[in-house]
Amino acid sequence: MTAMTMIEAINFTLKKEMERDQRVICLGEDIGKNGGVFRATDGLQAIFGEDRVVDTPIAESAIVGTAVGMAARGLRPVAEIQFFGFIYEAMDQMASQAARLRFRSGGVLGAPMVVRAPYGGGVKTPELHSDSLEGLFLHSPGLKVVMPSSPYDAKGLLTAAIRDNDPVLFLEPMKLYRAFKQEVPEEDYLIEIGKAKVVKEGEDLTVITWGQTVPLVSKVVEQWEQEQSISIEIIDLRTVSPIDEDTIIASVQKTGRAMIVHEAVKTGGPGAEISAMINEKALFHLSAPIVRVTSFDTPYPVPSVEEDWLPNADRISQGIREVLAH
Amino acid sequence: MTAMTMIEAINFTLKKEMERDQRVICLGEDIGKNGGVFRATDGLQAIFGEDRVVDTPIAESAIVGTAVGMAARGLRPVAEIQFFGFIYEAMDQMASQAARLRFRSGGVLGAPMVVRAPYGGGVKTPELHSDSLEGLFLHSPGLKVVMPSSPYDAKGLLTAAIRDNDPVLFLEPMKLYRAFKQEVPEEDYLIEIGKAKVVKEGEDLTVITWGQTVPLVSKVVEQWEQEQSISIEIIDLRTVSPIDEDTIIASVQKTGRAMIVHEAVKTGGPGAEISAMINEKALFHLSAPIVRVTSFDTPYPVPSVEEDWLPNADRISQGIREVLAH
Amino acid sequence: MWIEPNELPVNKVQYLDENGKLTNGAPEVSDDELIAMYKWMVQARVFDQRALKFQRQGRIGTYAPLSGQEAAQVGSAFALERQDWIYPSYREGAALFVHGFPMKNFFLYTMGHLKGTDAEGANVFPVQIIIGAQCLHAVGGAWAGKYQGENSVSVTYIGDGGTSEGDFHEALNFAGVYKLPMVFFVQNNQWAISVPRSKQTASGTIAQKAVAHGITGIQVDGNDVLAVYTTMKQALERARSGQPVLVEAVTYRQGPHTTADDPTKYRNKSDVDEWLAKDPLKRIKAFLLDKGIWNEELEQREFALAEQKVTEAFELAANTPKSKVEDIFEIVYEKKTSQLTEQQQSVSSEGVLK
Amino acid sequence: MWIEPNELPVNKVQYLDENGKLTNGAPEVSDDELIAMYKWMVQARVFDQRALKFQRQGRIGTYAPLSGQEAAQVGSAFALERQDWIYPSYREGAALFVHGFPMKNFFLYTMGHLKGTDAEGANVFPVQIIIGAQCLHAVGGAWAGKYQGENSVSVTYIGDGGTSEGDFHEALNFAGVYKLPMVFFVQNNQWAISVPRSKQTASGTIAQKAVAHGITGIQVDGNDVLAVYTTMKQALERARSGQPVLVEAVTYRQGPHTTADDPTKYRNKSDVDEWLAKDPLKRIKAFLLDKGIWNEELEQREFALAEQKVTEAFELAANTPKSKVEDIFEIVYEKKTSQLTEQQQSVSSEGVLK
Ligand SMILES: Cc1ncc(C[n+]2csc(CCOP(=O)(O)OP(=O)(O)O)c2C)c(N)n1
Ligand SMILES: Cc1ncc(C[n+]2csc(CCOP(=O)(O)OP(=O)(O)O)c2C)c(N)n1
Ligand SMILES: [Mg+2]
Ligand SMILES: [Mg+2]
Asked: Which residue positions does the secretion signal occupy (chains C, D) (predicted)?
């Protein structure tokens, strides 16, 4: 066990997986000599050489498309998109190519690959760097989408992602990269993709969230529980596609109330799917409308207003009040 | 009034708008001399010349990006994406650029443009031609998404789209292009973007759909109403973004039951948003879980199985049974 | 100072003129190879004509004819080694067959069958519909091949129109930077659906697009199978040693873009006729006859044989059990998600109240 | 036959050597113009240094320094006419100021203010973050300008790294096909964050990328403001007559990529020093001194004036009322949707139970 930040856990995992499996190759912009703009790949090129930790030209479609080609021919590429907002450039290679290669080849080929990208707001990046676009990929069959909320989860989930035989989009919460340290085992462990984690049990309300809003929700919930006699269950989705329906439904059947918190904009986002899913499977258990606390339906705004735009502590509290009002 | 197919109505509208406004320019692959692979722009180049009906090289990002640049400098481009499945190539220009220009310029510039594309299944196109991806754009603030279901609507909505001062994605149901004729006024009329149409009123169930599933749903509903003593309200969304919440909520408050039919894959699709919206605003009016009848969560499959994959008459009937079972 | 547009000299490689006469000395190609290539071209032509008929009869779906491009496709694929890979677009049946892709499965593809892209062990990537996307897969494939010491070249096929896509350029650039064992084989068939080559790009040739990415380019008469084969051999040799090459084969699409297209809307008969005179089969046949290694009897026998092979492949395809919607849930992921399981089950209970 | 990699001769345009001596005759540039350009360069240098300081003091956000690129930016923008348009990326402050973009608003941009891209009537498109995207907007802009008979050229700025993006090539290709009044101005500052020019592309120069698209290319010493200005004047003339041009200005980013970057991770001091010797301000200053039209007193006065202008602009920005989250709902669409209205209202009732 060592105390690690999330960025250290990611770096450590990449190193371990590259040691373990020659087929693992990292590619992306500035990931080699520079070690990545967030240092996720720091030191890896020195250890594994320029053949396995590859600085690419600036061309996101090519980065993902190359990874698809590599994966189909026996490698296990881990591609980095420097900021998740640039994924649009690679959208065809993500949603039509990586996602569909197994399908399009009638099950003969596959694309065992990972696309890593830092995502999320609250760190005052320039515009178009901070969007939470996981909803687009939830709506793209053939992909898996994983979003860790802690160093421990990051290691277990990234290990699972790299060993998965399907393409995995691995979204790293920028704001949590160095937010806190956690004990992380150096030994091999996997966290199953597709399974949510009940962060804490509760009786009166289920809050579903993932990635960088998990610590924030936990803090707000803690305050509520201290101040009011109420007990709130928190589910960390961990995997946004496929969604762990069983865990969500079981929880809502128990609590009768649900709230979803995410940084993606509201309309058409993952919160909509979760709400619809609960409606389908647990409608008659609900004693209040499901509340979504999300970013507003505008483009990601300029840094000076982002804190008010994101689902912050105030807005989460407001959401809890609302869902409990019924 | 003239009886027109939808493709004729679209062609006619483009002609009218180009006559009316010099700033309207059409661009896209094979839209000029060839008149478009579906003949939507047939004859227009002969009338308006190569300067206003422009055959482009094969580069979707460039087509949309050029339209953004034109729109910002005073033109009103109507760009065609040959098949909607190719929109992924232009995703950045759609979702980061066209959608955000007003926002990114602090409200100073705008992108009054239309992106037209044939979409939808059931016509045995080769793969990657038939996807219904409107859900991606519903989740992209700054865009409007319009999906007509009849020749009359196509004209009124396309006219409104071209005159709109914001970027509009105009999705044309391939299967309905020549499916039937309808009386269409030659005079100017607009159908308001953002307003749904109650196709028929009903008391026991609200079915929400749009685009090419509208006639299909109407047929199935007619049968149900003939065979059972039940009355079903059908809402044709017409605009998928922004969604006309008022019409949907009012209807569900009346009927107490809702079903959504769309060709997009289920998870994370527009049906999820509609379901979540109803949950938020009309939960206590619901007497049954909301049912979504959609395509399955797989890549759009090969032509030989597409009929079973799409929301066909059987599956829609099955959905109605389900929602009425409670 | 100023690099003026199209000042770079580009000389098209050609061995056989339109009448099958040598223009430039004889390349080292054995009689056996010559005959084998011609047979493949015959096979391709027959396949194409039959496929068109099947489509008209409603027995297969949309089809993109290749007639006119047999020399480009056969000449290029015939130069490959077994371990080399093809990353095709949608019009490369002939190249695929030469490289071992079963004709039966090509028919399955046109019938909308899930197994229509199964190469059954041949190194052929699934047919690509998204123009340009295959170039990037070839980059990754070439990279994997190099990394794993396979001594294999990845060859991607694309059309003149496809060179306008950003993906095409990103792929060339990657190939150049990483010195990948790759050949970009562009069939410049003069048309991208209705858009003529001259309106697709202002560059004088497609071959010169290599200059943007610091890699080797070459233009070849794509209706001259000798020129294509010889050039491709050399290109593959370069590629195998880490020098990617862009080959532009100048050819012509004699038929419609696809069976859904009406080329009379956008091109003249005179244009077509001019190119029919340059037909690739006619040319190599004349050369073989001249050489005395081919005759009309062999010709007839070969056409008959080719017909028979097409019939057989088609029958096999037509008799293959149809894809069922239930099958698709099995090939989205390695392991079905619970959502997919639920949806798959709903199919079997279709029409029945759940 | 074979177009070998990088065989095309590309000669860099230069007038002033590193010491400010004429190498190639004197171009026709008046003393007033020379002095005006130098003053803009001083302004740019001072702006850059102050912006860096403001960032370190936490008074502005991330900033991408331009020191070393003053000649490229000022020389190119100074050649523009008022009706011409700039489509910038994120490192073009100097070019923007020359073309009339208010410095105050550039500061607002770095402060994360909604009005940070407002050009207040100058023909400057919003700063673009997505690499390559601006090139396509410039294509559309040039097209609109041509269509509307504006006699204006659209100039897009991009870096060496940006030339690897597909969008860059799609834009060049469109410009070539439609003969648009456009200049692609590439500042090849040797680095794309940590990736050196040599690893970005195998092409010997950026200028030669024009060849792929049949348009004119030219390489110029980007630290020689005389060369940049003169070349750009000619390029604009060509562009105005419908011949698009790709200009590669060879320069150097003296500072970090942005204030968040640590260049010592990836480049040597010796590399930097070599280029500091080629500093663009030093060079033109030496020339002006030599010519006897500049002196140290003017120099000091100009630097003081530049400092003062920066201070004024910064103060104006700092005193501008901050953007409020309520404002953003007004600029998503021309007319707010009902969803946006509801969300906007929820902001004002924040902290209060609805
Ligand atoms: C990304 C994308 N855009 C557009 C199309 C539609 N389309 C199919 S074939 C074609 C023309 C291609 O021309 P070319 O590259 O010259 O190849 P050819 O058909 O002549 O073999 C077009 C525009 C597509 N399949 N993919
Ligand atoms: C599409 C896209 N990909 C990646 C980035 C991240 N990024 C910002 S600047 C930069 C380097 C750009 O280098 P270059 O084009 O040479 O311009 P310079 O910064 O040197 O001025 C990168 C990779 C981005 N902003 N947009
Ligand atoms: Mg072609
Ligand atoms: Mg650079």
From this structure: none
Distance in angstroms (rounded) separating the CA atoms of residues B309 and B311:
7
Rounded to the nearest angstrom, the distance between the alpha carbon of D201 and the centre of ligand 4 is: 12
- Domains of chain B, start order: 2-184 (3.40.50.970), 197-324 (3.40.50.920)
Q: How far apart are CA A181 and CA B283, in angstroms?
A: 42
Q: Is A248 on the interface with C (CB under 8 A)?
A: no
User: At D65, which amino acid appears?
Assistant: P
DSSP B264: E
List Cβ neighbours of C13 (8 Å cut-off, separation of 6 or more): C218, C219, C220, C221, C227, C230, C231, D1
Q: What's the alpha-carbon Rg for chain B, to the nearest Å? A: 19
B129 a catalytic residue: yes
Residues with CB under 5 A from ligand 3 (ion): C 159-161, 189, 192
Assess whether the previous peptide bond of B242 is cis (omega < 30° from 0). Answer: yes
Query: Atom of ligand 2 at shortest distance to CA of D130?
Result: 26
- pLDDT tens series, chain B, 326 aa: 899 999 999 999 999 999 999 999 999 999 999 999 999 999 999 999 999 999 999 999 999 999 999 999 999 999 999 999 999 999 999 999 999 999 999 999 999 999 999 999 999 999 899 999 999 999 999 999 999 999 999 999 999 999 999 999 999 999 999 999 999 999 999 999 999 999 999 999 999 999 999 999 999 999 999 999 999 999 999 999 999 999 999 999 999 999 999 999 999 999 999 999 999 999 999 999 999 999 999 999 999 999 999 999 999 999 999 999 98
Using an 8 Å CB-CB cutoff, list chain B residues near D135. Answer: 65
Buried b (16+ CB within 10 A) or exposed e, D232-242: bbbbbebbbee
DSSP, res D207: G
d(CA C316, CA C302): 21
Nearest ligand to the CA atom of A85: 2
CA angle C50, C51, C55 (to 5 degrees): 115
Return the number of CB contacts < 8 Å for A and B. 141
Which residues, other chains included, contact C49 with Cβ-Cβ below 8 Å and sequence gap of 6+?
C67
A57 contact residues in D (CB cutoff 8 A): 161, 164, 192, 195, 199-201
Token reading at D102: 């208010």
Nearest residue to D182 via CA among B92, B73, B111: B73
Helix/strand/coil for A216: helix
Contact (Cβ atoms closer than 8 angstroms) between residue B92 and residue B61: yes
Overall fold of domain C31-320: Rossmann fold (3.40.50)
Helix (H) or strand (E) holding C141: helix C133-147
Q: What residue in D sits closest to B99 (Cα-Cα)?
A: D332
Comma-separated ranges of CATH 3.40.50.970 domains in chain C:
31-320
Give residue for tokens 């926002």.
Answer: B103
Q: Which residues of C touch D164 (CB under 8 A)?
A: 170, 173
Report whether B203 contacts B255 (CB < 8 A). yes
For residue D192 and ligand 2, the question of a CB distance below 6 A is answered with yes
* CA angle (D224 as vertex; D223, D228 as ends), nearest 5: 100
A82 pocket-lining for ligand 2 (C-beta < 6 Å): yes
The minimum CA-CA distance between C7 and chain A, rounded to whole Å, is 28
- In short, whether A88's Cβ falls inside 6 Å of ligand 2 is no
ipTM of the complex, rounded to two decimals? 0.98
How many CA atoms are closer than 13 Å to the CA of A275, on its beta-carbon side?
Answer: 31
Query: Distances from the Cα of B157 to the Cαs of B21, B28, B95, B116, in angstroms?
Result: 17, 20, 21, 12
The number of angstroms, rounded, from the C-alpha of D142 to the middle of its chain's C-alpha atoms is: 18
Spatial contact of A110 and A151, defined as CB atoms under 8 Å apart: no
Intra-chain end-to-end CA distance of chain A, in Å: 45
Global pTM value: 0.98
Instruction: Compute φ and ψ for D124, nearest 5 degrees.
Output: -130, 120
